[in-house]
Specification:
This protein is mainly alpha-helical and 154 residues long. It has a domain of 72 residues. Helix content is 71%, strand content 0%. The protein is flat. It comes from Variovorax terrae. Pfam families: TatA_B_E.
Length: 154
């Protein structure tokens, strides 16, 4: 890379001051600074993209290894399940041959579902509800305000 020291930077600044002039030098310096900033951002973006692609390759390799391990586990589970089913059927066959008579089936005791609670509450007569002060109809908030609003004296 270019080796720029303090002495070389001072020499470049003196030459630029003479060639460009003191009026245009600040504008040129801002433009050069903006271009250098854009170049640095571009280089950083390229570096970040390269790093992302490398990480993506590593993730793909890791994904393949995990999928391979999952396939191995799945195969071992399937073979184990097949062996278990064989042993189960053999054991069940032996148990069935050992039992010569059938056992009677036991059913759970009947429990009432208690679904008629509405009928029980609805059986109270309206005259009794009115005498006891039980509401028979629900009022909305606006209807309640209108009903119980005090009357104006005119």
């Amino acid at each position: 890379m270019i080796d720029l020291g303090i002495s070389k930077m001072a020499l470049i600044g003196a030459v630029a001051l003479i060639v460009i002039g003191p009026e245009k030098l600040p504008r040129v310096a801002r433009t050069v600074g903006a271009l250098l900033g854009k170049a640095q951002r571009y280089v950083n973006d390229v570096k970040a993209e390269v790093n992302r692609s490398m990480e993506l390759d590593e993730l793909k390799k890791m994904k393949e290894t995990v999928e391979g391990a999952a396939r191995d586990v799945e195969n071992s589970i399937q073979t184990g399940a097949a062996d278990f089913e064989k042993q189960w059927t053999e054991t069940a066959g032996e148990a069935a041959s050992a039992l010569s008579g059938e056992l009677p089936q036991v059913y759970p005791e009947y429990k009432h579902p208690r679904k008629k609670w509405r009928v029980k509450q609805g059986a109270t007569p309206n005259w009794y509800k009115a005498r006891q002060g039980i509401r028979t109809k629900a009022l909305s908030g606006a209807a309640r305000v209108a009903r119980y609003r005090p009357q104006r004296l005119s």
